[in-house]
Structure formats: C-alpha cells, structure tokens
Write a structure and sequence with these properties.
This protein is mostly beta strands and about 200 residues long. The protein is built from one helix and nine strands; from the N terminus they run βαββββββββ. It has a seven-stranded antiparallel sheet with strand order 1-2-3-4-5-8-9, with no helix packed on it. Strands 6-7 form a two-stranded antiparallel ribbon. A hairpin with a 6-residue loop joins strand 8 and strand 9.
Length: about 200
C-alpha cells in the first residue's frame, strides 16, 4: 500500500542539479527493502509517495476433536469428555519504507539511493507456531424427566501472534478455563423452559 502525501518533489535530473546548486531540495524515491518479499519490488517513482508497505500475512491451522460420553447410571448420570488438538502456523513477510528527511541518503540523492535497512526502510520476516491440546468435560444429571442439571469445565483457545511489525514483541496466547453449573427445567403444557446457571473463569 502506498501513502501518497509527499509535498517535496522526487528527484529527477533537472531538480537534482538545482538542489546541488543550493536550490530547493528534492527527495529520492524509495521502495521495498531489497532482499525482502515484495509483490512489487520497484521504486515508487513519479508519484508523491511518502510512506508505504508491501506485506503478505497468513496462517495455516490443523485441528481435530474427539469426544466420548459414558453413562454412569443409564439415562440418569452421564459423564462427557473431549479434547481438541491444534497446530497453528502464522507468518508475515515484506517491508515498510519511509521518506525521512533527516536521512542523508534521501535528501538530494538520485532515486533509489535510500532503500537500506534502518535508513529508509524496515524488513519484516516473522513466523510463529503453536500446538497443544484444549479439553472439556461435563457431568450431566437427570433427576427427573423434565429436569437436567450439569457441571461443565472447558478450555478456550485463541492463537497469539504479534503486533504487526518487525521487532514487536509476540502476543501471548490467552488460556481461558471456564466452569459452569446449570439447571434446565421443562414445565407442564403449555411447555416452557427455565434455565438457571452460574459460570466463572
């Protein structure tokens, strides 16, 4: 993406010669950092480009889930247990560039003079993998045909990552354990449902 708000002209042979003769300044056109991934590695010439980024980001996820029910007392007391295995890969690659007028490589220099890392651009090359198990279990009690009471324990999952630029600290994957006790009752005709529950994490 190109942010085109530059109000100082990019250098061409004419205005560069004028700048070297102590005339108005011009700025070198920049672009993606060499050696980094880029969908368009060319310089951003003939435009008022002051800042830009050329980045790709994506992820791959593999997961499977298994669950089993067991009747401790048939149709009265049931225990359920399940687990989810996950493998999560995330990546981000590319670069950002900028026209810092404090850089001696961009003020009054030919186009392309400033694409160096740290001077007018920053490469991005990030990768992160996570894997593990998240599980759940519940105990369900049917004290009567119209009443169900159950206790549930479950583990949530949300992958971590980073805050979008090279050198940023990785985000910590939050682990959320949730507990819930609930009762459901079906009333007599006309049928209605009453639910009461309490949960905490």
């Amino acid at each position: 993406m190109n942010w085109n708000y530059l109000n100082i002209p990019q250098c061409d042979p004419t205005n560069l010669a004028t700048a070297h003769a102590r005339g108005p300044d011009c700025l070198s056109a920049g672009g993606p950092v060499p050696g980094s991934w880029a969908s368009d590695p060319s310089l951003r010439e003939n435009m008022n480009n002051a800042f830009g980024e050329d980045v790709q980001r994506g992820y791959k996820q593999l997961a499977f889930f298994a669950s089993v029910d067991f009747d401790i007392i048939p149709k009265v007391l049931t225990v359920t247990a399940g687990t989810r295995h996950y493998h999560y890969d995330e990546f981000e690659a590319g670069s950002v560039w900028y026209t810092a007028t404090t850089s001696s490589l961009i003020v009054n220099h030919p186009n392309g003079a400033c694409t160096a890392t740290g001077a007018c651009g920053t490469p991005i090359d990030l990768a992160k993998s996570e894997s593990g198990f998240r599980s759940r279990a519940s105990l369900t009690w049917h004290p009567g045909p119209d009443l169900i009471t159950y206790y549930t324990f479950s583990q949530g999952f949300r992958p971590g990552g980073w805050a979008g630029s090279n050198g940023s600290p990785p985000l910590v994957r939050p682990n959320v354990d949730r507990f819930q006790v609930s009762t459901r009752r079906h009333g007599p005709p006309p049928r209605y449902l009453t639910v009461r529950y309490a949960g905490w994490v």
